[in-house]
Amino acid sequence: MMESGFHGCDLDDSLKCKLEESGTQNTHSVMEKAAAWFRSRSIFVVAYGTGCGAIEMPPTFTSRYDAERMGVVGVATPRQADLIILSGYLAYKTLRRVIRTYEQMQKPKYIITLGSCPINGGMYWDSYNTIKKLDDYLPVDVSVVGCMPRPEAVIDGFSLLQKRIKNGEKAGWEKYDENLDFYKKNQKRVLGNHVDPSYETDWYNLENGSEV
Amino acid sequence: MLDFFNSNETIHFIITVGSMLLFTIGLYGIFTQKNLVKVLISFDIMESALFLFFIGLHYNFGLVAPIVDGSDKTFTNMVDPVPQAMILTTIVIGLAVLALGLSFGIEYFRLTGINDISKMNELRD
Amino acid sequence: MNSIFLLLNLLPILFLYQFGGDLHVSLSLTKEFTLSLSQTPLGTFFAYLSLISFLLVTIAQKSKKTSFSYYALQFLLSIAMLAIVLAGDFITFFIGWEIMTWSSYFLISKSSDIDTKSLQKYILFSLASAFSLIAGMVIAYSFANSFDFNVIQNSFHTMPFNIKVALIVLFSLSFFTKAGVIGLHYWVVDTYSKAPDLFSSILSAVMSKMGIYGLFLVYGHLVGYAELKDMFGVILNGTDFGYVLGWIGVITSIIATFKAITQDEVKRLLAYSSIAQLGYIIAVIGMGTSFGVAGAMYHTLIHTIIKLLLFINVAAIVAQTGKNKFSELGGLIYRTPVSFVMLLIGIIALAGMPPLGGFASKFMLYNAAIDSKFALILVGMLFSGAASFLYCYKLVYGIYLGHPTSKDLETQKEVPISYLIPQVILALLLVATGAFPGAFIKVINPILIEFSLNTIPYTSMGVMQSAVGNFNGLFIISAFVVIFVFILLLIWRIKSKAKNNLNRFDISYCGEVPSKNTQLHYGYGFGTDLYRIKFVNAILKRSSSPFYEALATQTKKTAGLLSRMYYGNIHNTMIIILLFFSALYFIGVN
Amino acid sequence: MIFQIILLIMLAYVVGFIYMGLYRNITARIQGRYGPTVYQTFYDSIKLFSKKNSVSYGWMFYLGPVIMATGAVLTLILVPVFSDSDFLRSVTTQGNLFLLLYLMVLGPLGNALAVGTGGNPFGVMGVVRGLTRLIGLELPFYIAVVGLIIASNSSDIVHIIDLQKTTGLNILVHPFLFIAAMISMVGFFGASPFDIPGAPQEVYSGPRTEFSGKFLALLMSQGSIFAFAKLVLIIDLFLGGADSLWMLVIKTFAIFITIIFIGIVYGRYKVEQAVDFLMKIPTLIGVIGLVRIIWFG
Amino acid sequence: MSLGYYFLLPVIFSFLTPYFRKLGTSALRGSSVFLTFILFVQTLEYTGVSLPQISQFSVAPPIGIAFVLDNFSLLFLLIFTFSGFMVSLYMLWYFKANDNTNETRFYVFFNMLLAGSIGMILSCDIFNVYIFFEITGISSYALAAYNKDKLGLEAGIKYLIIGSIASIFIVFAIMLIYLQIGTVNIGLIAQRYSEIDPKIAVLIALMLFIGFGTKAELFPMNFWAPDIYQGSSSHVNGLFSAIVAKSYLFVFFHLFYLFGLNTKYTLLIMSLGAITFLVSEFTALNQKDIKRLFAYSTLGQLGILFMALASNSSDTISGALFHLASHSISKLLIFLVLGILISKFKSTKITIVGDFKSLFLSIVLIIGFLSILGIPPFSGFIGKILILKGFALSHNYIAIAFILLVSIVEAVYFFRLIALMLDKKRTKTSVPVGFVNYIVLSVLAILIVLFGVYPSLLTHYTDLATNALLQPHSYLQFALGVGL
Fold it and tell me: Across the interface, do D36 and A80 touch by the CB < 8 Å criterion?
């Protein structure tokens, strides 16, 4: 409870309200639908092995469970990725890199978290350097629970994500765009104001065109 | 006995040997001596040897000095005058060189205190 | 001043144009020597090549503060080169050659970063080249009794075989030195890199071509390719002589290419590249076929254009930024976009890529090798061409792409317009030669006739004809443009919004944010991994400099040894004279 | 004419994507996986095209992939896909084998320019690795091509195809050249053991690190077109070309499957190992073939 | 004007020098300029006259003494009088700008030097040649030491000792000749040289060879030469290089060809010349003293001249004579410029070449350097190419290769100097040149360029001179007094 403030209980009401509103929203045009289908069939993953869940990635993507048959394939750089898998607890230090990686991904982009730590802190619930609820900092699309989830569960998460993409449900990146101030505020609270200078030049500031 | 000494061949032989000995003394001086004055003396000895040699070989018995006094117009019984004229000139030149060399030597000795020609090597590589 | 010399530089062109290709003047120097100018198609080609190059470089000098003496020497140099290429006899040729040597020497000495060692290197190699030439010409004289090219040509076949070989070797050595064949290239790199920036373009583009002109003159005109064939016999479809020269050229170009990749200084890279490109020319010049000559000529033209373009470009950048190393430059693309495009055109041509003129010349070179069935030589040329992509890319990346390595690079402005004008002209020339490769055949054919070789069939401007297939430059370039525009439009229309992320630090960097101090420019380390390849390492770790330095050291030692004789002991001197006399006397008497 | 060319490009696009899909699928099967569908690369491509954002570092970054694609398409239309089509023959005679050799490098150059503009050092490292690898990779291929040109005394591909109707297929006549060319081809397809430029463990994705969205999609599309063109080039040179769609598919697939089988069983060479290897074994094989042609042919 | 005045006038002026000094320094300097001008103009007049010409004194040759001027000696006479004229003009500036306490002494020996060297080339009597040889020698010893400084005196002493050795050889040779033939007339000796007992003939030839070869700075006898050049003043070096060495060279080859020694000794002299060239050019590489450096350069060029003049072929000799003239002019130019620099910087290190700032001096100095290196369009090139052409015509390729290879070594130090001159990093001091020097140096430089671009001016004379040297019939006629 030392760091209860970080859990968003002191969020502005207005922001909270907005977050509540952003629910599901179906796509309408045929093109959009087709695009959504293709997006669901092809997911490039940048697997960020933040915690113990990193060990679950190799079996997920290799011969035993073979995620590639679903069109889910790993890539090395965030530029090409659609999906980032955060596999475990996130220290502040890691969070900074995760945020940066996420912001470098091109929209549409999704986040899947593994395990309970990104949801509520898990066994790190009273750690001084670990965030408790990732959703306050980055919009999580699918959380796969378990400690750690088996590859089957991860694949289940993939198919859930695919289903949601196919249905054109409103995804995390849209929430992130709409409530950027909220997320940034939370991020800054953890990371402090003395974040890397290049944060000023992130997508956050460039949203309305290139002014730098 | 004296006839033997009075023959041209003998006198020429003696002069040749003598002057060459003298020349050798000069050469010896050049090879061994390093004092400038001694070197110049050696040169002079060599020159003198040459003069002796040249004059001596042109002297035959019974000939007189080539002095034309106006009375005798036959020019017979005279020594060939050309070598003598040449030697005279050469002596003068030798003297001039010697004088110049000595004056150089003196000046140089005054400036540096060196009279050994092998130590005059400020100009060198 | 600039405009005066611009006009002055224009004069010889007009003069040459006025005579319309038929200039024959002679002036008696002594009773044996005649200064004569006699215009041949070959000479005319090289004359225009050099004069126009000088004109373009003079334009570029407009915005660079240049002294009168510099201009005057440069003008003298251009006249000397004119004398070389129009010479009708060896005396004129040699006088032009030597005036070229010393006037360029003084021009090089005007550079701010020149040192005595490089100057000495340059002049000694130039003089060695000149002396080799002079040896050749007096030997030729001893048989032909004339320095006139035509007389020597007519009497060449009457000379003894060893004299013929000696002549060819001497002349070749001389001109190889000027062109910078490997082994004789010791001076090239230092000179090119330390000369005044704009003068480097003359050195590389024009002066080295005088060596090529000399080779053409000797092989094609004085000796004659038919005679070369008779002398040395035939291997495969070409001559033995051409085979040897082919290997010389290929080895030159391979070694120089790898050396170029590892350079950090821009102009050193260009210098090595120049050596490499001239290696191609030398590789085909001795083949004695129409395509050999045509390839060499075409590559001469293209290389002149490219090197002028590149050196002027680099000179502009150096003048603008004051930096000349890849490790100090970088990221200039959006500061000096026009320069970037010009350099890009230059390196595309340098790499020999279609659709620019560079490919046309490479094509002719390869055809020459195919024509003579010199397959391994051709493979060597292709190999060196493949390796040259690396230094081409290093050139454009190191200067324009990547990240600026210092703060002042981020605020650079576009280079002055006077630098850009010649570059644009040259770039257009490259595009034109790419689109109309066949047009040059019309220039080459008279030269082939002069060398009594078969002419190359000419069909149309756009088509480059060869023995083993042809290509249509016009088609290629228009297809390229059409497809390019088509794809561009296609990609333009796709809705995916292209964000111009102008902050250069926003790159994928493993989640990290590179700071201003992070080394992001790969200009310095570029090419160092070549050292790990055994074959390349074997080339790179060898150098001609130990040999020449050992030569210099040995010469100095000899000099020291000999100078001990003059140790100022007059007594010993006397004794030596006397002993020498006695020794001679004993030898003489017995 | 334009229609035919567009049709050709479409064909190459489709076949190329299917081959790429097959590549992944077959690789997966060899590895004991189920693998993606053969259309998977097509899905990937469309998905990337439909990305909402694509990061760009300026106009050169924008043009680089376009140049690359242009090079691929130009290569395609200059390779006689159908050896008996008069139209394609007339188009391909506008170019020749040397032109193709250089056009094949134009794409990498455009890519390299864009990568350089992107300013990602990993990208440039990848490019440099690629270009360094190219030194070794081109050598056996050049030897093979030069050998064929000298053997058939023409650099015109149509002529080389026609000649094979009388002398027999080049794969039988000049097997050494074929082996040399095939080893190079493995590298040109970016298959192991010559896939160092984009090694994700070392340099991110190498040259492609900064490409996203439609640029990446364009790169993938041109890659499949280019792969198809290369396959066609190989069958034109060594297998007598193809006069019908079936022949085309069979022959290219044969070459393709060979390349996959070679690629799948090897680990990745370091760049210097790759160049060293390429300069030794395939070059030696090629030189044997070449000497055979010149001195004994 | 009788040829005798060539000797008499300088001697008279030399003796009158103290008197001129009393009239004032300008009279002293002016008298020298006047003298050399008269001699030069007179020589120019001889260029239009049919040669040989003879001036006899009291008795006709072969018994009497006579001066014979043929085309060969005319060339040398032109060089000597011209060089003398230039040096005397230069001295106008020199003694104004520098310490002039030794002025009188200089002019005495300068005029005497002219007398001696001109007498040496005109005299057709071997004993007179010896006398003039000694006059030249004494005046050059004195000129070397005329400042009475330490180095000068050392140079003078060394020169004197060597001169004495040489003169002993020559005297010995003359005596042997007289003993064998009974005459000192060159014409008669030339006619009857073959009658001499071969063993004695060898001895005579060798003695003459050693005597004149020592003075003409041929290789194993030239270890003294750089010391002399280093010790003397720069303008004196100019005289040594342009006049003195050339006059000994004249006598050497005049006798060489007249006595028919060319059949036996060509190879010896050519190889010694080659060694001279090689050794001195190599030795010059390490020099730090500018005067010594150019001394070696002079030795080297004399080596080439020995090679070429001994070669027995008219083409080579003609080229060699051209080269000789060009070398005289160029070396004179260089030494005069060096004189200006040395008097400014009071140093003889080679770095002074890099320290001065004067466009004019740089240009003329570079012209001089390039000319000596044989680079067109300067006169040295024509000389060198003519020599090489001559060797080529006699198919002597070894000599060609040798000259060209060693020339590269020569280029090393010349261009080191030029690089020093062009080095912008050195601090440069401006040097006052002096009005007269502008004229003198530009005349010399213009001549170098003129002979380079219009060599017919000079080749005309060198060809005539070569003919006179190789076909000495008319000379012999005059020397024997037959033509009178």
Answer: no
Least confident of C283-297, C504-518, E465-479: C504-518
Distance from CA of B123 to the nearest CA of C (A): 6
Both tokens assigned to A129: 């350097």
Tens digit of pLDDT for each residue in A84-140?
999 888 888 888 888 888 888 888 899 999 988 888 888 888 888 888 888 888 899
Interface contact E163-B46, CB threshold 8 A: no
The range of the structural domain enclosing residue A34 comes to: 4-194
Question: Looking at the domain assignment, is residue B100 inside a domain?
Answer: yes
Residue B95: inside a domain, yes or no?
Answer: yes
Task: Give the separation between CA A170 and CA A174, rounded to whole angstroms.
Answer: 7
Percent of chain E with pLDDT over 90: 55
Could you tell me how many CB contacts below 8 A there are between chain B and chain C?
30
> Which among D53, D69, D294 has CB closest to C375?
D294
Average pLDDT over residues C437-453: 89
Q: Is B77 exposed, middle or buried, given 0-12, 13-18 or 19+ CB atoms closer than 10 A?
A: exposed
Residue E385 in contact with partner chain C when CB distance is under 8 A = yes
Residue C568: which of B27, B31, B121 has the nearest Cβ?
B121
Please indicate if any CB of chain C lies within 8 Å of the CB of E425: no
Q: How confident is the model at residue E273 (pLDDT cuts 50, 70, 90)?
A: very high
**Would you say residue A203 has pLDDT above 70?**
no
Q: Does any domain span residue B68?
A: yes
User: pLDDT tens digits, residue range D138-197?
Assistant: 899 999 999 999 888 888 888 888 888 888 888 899 999 999 999 998 988 888 888 888
Chains E and C: 3 or more CB pairs within 8 Å of each other = yes
- The answer to whether A4 contacts chain D (CB < 8 Å) is no
Chains in contact with chain D (at least 3 beta-carbon pairs closer than 8 A): A, C
Residues paired with residue A48 on neighbouring β-strands, in sequence order: A86
- From the list C354, C396, C484, the residue facing D66 with the nearest CB is C484
Give chain B's domain count.
1
What tokens appear for D297 in the block?
């042919």
**Ranges of H-type helices in C494-544:** 534-540
Domain membership of residue A56 (yes or no) is yes
Q: How distant is the Cα of C376 from the closest Cα of chain D, in angstroms?
A: 8
Chains contacting B (3+ CB pairs below 8 angstroms): C, E
| Ramachandran region, residue C527 (left: φ > 0; alpha: ψ -120 to 50; beta: rest) | left
Q: Using alpha carbons only, give the angle D28, D33, D39 rounded to the nearest 5 degrees.
A: 50
Q: Write the pLDDT tens digit of every residue in D218-246.
A: 999 998 899 999 999 999 999 988 888 88
Count of C-beta atoms within a 10 Å radius of residue A90: 28
User: Is A212 inside a domain boundary?
Assistant: no
Q: Total structural domains in chain A?
A: 1
User: Is residue D132 less than 8 Å (CB to CB) from chain C?
Assistant: yes
Determine the structural domain holding residue B99 and report its residue range. Answer: 2-116
Domain extent listing, chain C: 1-221, 224-470+518-543, 545-589
Q: Give the SS3 label for residue E178.
A: helix
CATH of the domain at B85: 1.10.287
Alpha helices per DSSP H over chain A:
13-21, 30-41, 57-61, 92-104, 117-120, 151-167, 172-178, 180-191, 203-206
pLDDT at A129: 86
Concatenate the DSSP letters of all residues of C204-271 into one string: IIIIHHHHHHHHIIIIIIII-HHHHHHHH-EETTEEHHHHHHHHHHHHHHHHHHHHHHT--BHHHHHH
CA distance C433 to chain D (A): 15
Q: Any idea where the domains of chain D sit in the sequence? A: 2-296
The pLDDT assigned to A204 comes to: 42
0.80 cut: is pTM over it? yes
Residue among A35, A68, A79 minimizing CB distance to D211: A79
Is the model's pLDDT at C197 over the cut of 70? yes
